[in-house]
Amino acid sequence: MAQIQHKLEDLPPKTERVSVVELFHPGKVVHVCAPMVRYSKLPFRALVRRYNCDLAFTPMIIAESFVKSLKARDSEFTTNSSDRPLVVQFAARDGVTFADAAEIVAPYSDGVDLNCGCPQRWAMAEGYGSCLLKTPELICDMVRQARVRVSDKNFSVSMKIRLHKDLRETVDMCRKAEHAGISWVAIHGRTPSQRGEPVNTEAIKLIKENLSIPVIANGDIKTLDDVKRVKTLTGIDGVMAARGILQNPAMYAGYEQTPLQCVQDWVDISLKLGTHFTCFHHHLMYMFERVTPKSEKRVFNALTSTAAVLEYLEDHYGVSYNPDRTINDNFPIQNGDVNSDSTD
């Protein structure tokens, strides 16, 4: 059995970096798993890579605490040799810290991303996320400093943004970032104050037409039909899914809803990696959200232990966990074990 990896410094560097930019080429739409707090961790990334996901992000990590604290690095970043191509997303507010964080993860990843889109109040109050949309020169400085610190041309430096109310500001900001050396940009097609409003595909198209770097569309990507529709409307180079891929990790493989094999894969992957109960259970809750009746969901969502979930899955779906089952991935074992009912 693989050893538990407690420290980032204990991870072996990637032997050969994957050039994220080279994923983008005419005729292909790159399928991306979005950065999602608590959810886009190693076990879930391993799952979606089985179902036609081309590129995966870590959850957003606060760069300052990551740089200063070994404990933060141990808890926030886990990877392995199969986890590629991988982009590590940071929330940062100054160039030195962003560059420091990029330098730390560079041996173990294929790129870093600057979060310029998080609309949560705490993030904006701290100068992170969408707050950066007001300071394009600061964004450019962070990009430049990361570029200088990690000189490998195959290491990408990207940004994920939301829209300004005045789209001319967004276009100008993206042009400046491109000039500063940004590799590509992901655009959530809403402003920071918008939530359920329709995604502004015209805005994404406008930005795409004004840049020479790849552009990824984010927002309301839930099926392959959505991928085709957004590609047709905007001409983008890739799509990024968040809630859609949580509900259906096999969406990029063309499944309309989560197939039973995907549930089985999640059980095998997550428990072999020692995923804590809350994360293990919540992912299954998302997968079943659109495919089970309310009465069943109430029962399943109320389960309080790994053992209870496994019993339910076997009784209702014939899904079980066999630690001896062969899975074709190089998995390290994370903190926790199959019998752990921790809700941390």
Give an overview of the whole structure.
It is a single chain. Helix 1 packs antiparallel against helix 11 (260-272), helix 4 (95-105) runs parallel beside helix 6 and helix 6 (136-149) packs parallel to helix 7 (167-180). The chain contains 14 helices and 9 strands. Residues 1-6 and 330-344 have low confidence and may be disordered. By secondary structure, the protein is α/β, with parallel strands linked by helices. 46% of the residues are buried. Strands 1-2-4-5-6-7-8-9 form an 8-stranded parallel beta barrel, surrounded by 5 helices. The longest helix is centred in the middle third of the chain and has 14 residues, at 136-149. It has helices at residues 42-49, 63-68, 70-76, 95-105, 121-125, 136-149, 167-180, 201-209, 224-234, 243-247, 260-272, 277-288, 294-301, 306-317, and strands at 30-33, 55-57, 61-62, 86-91, 111-116, 156-161, 185-188, 215-218, 238-241.
Characterize this entry briefly:
This protein is an alpha/beta fold. It has helices spanning 42-49, 63-68, 70-76, 95-105, 121-125, 136-149, 167-180, 201-209, 224-234, 243-247, 260-272, 277-288, 294-301, 306-317; strands at residues 30-33, 55-57, 61-62, 86-91, 111-116, 156-161, 185-188, 215-218, 238-241. It has an 8-stranded parallel β-barrel, surrounded by 5 helices.
